[in-house]
User: Fold Alkylhydroperoxidase AhpD core domain from uncultured Cytophagales bacterium.
Amino acid sequence: MNHFAVPTREDVSPQNQALFDNLNGALGFVPNLYATIAYSGNALNNYLQLQHAKTSLSKKEKEVVNLVVSQVNECEYCLAAHTALGKMNGLTDGQILEIRQGSAGFHARLDALVKLTREITLHKGRIAEAHLAAFYAAGYTKESLVDVMVAIGDKVIMNYLHNLTQVPIDFPPAPRLTPVAA
Assistant:
């Protein structure tokens, strides 16, 4: 496994130094995974534009997608970050664990989103028609579907980057899932 050192502000391009300053101002720190993407002179800016682009999904729905994709991809960094962000966007600890296990019985619409996102991620977009029908029946639209795909792509980028680089996790660790009895 390749292990990367986390670049500091002085290690990155002037454009990325400005982005580090913005992140520091907004978050109080530069998350290690954001710093790592700054090895590229352009990728951090491109990624931040993607991450902050307009979407039909609510912040809570985006966190649902982030949690599901990160669980499927076994990204400990993103699970830690999105557990914290999920709580900031109204999810409880129990709801976050349920989402990571593949359902959201506490909310029918989010349950459809969890199940669709999980199937898309597990099967690389090749899903049964029933999953898509349930998503639409929950009130989502074709616009929602496209926005879910963009959110999945966003999270896959960071999941794979962390799984490749294994930079230190600088968020409180996400709880381990207890295996569900069959």
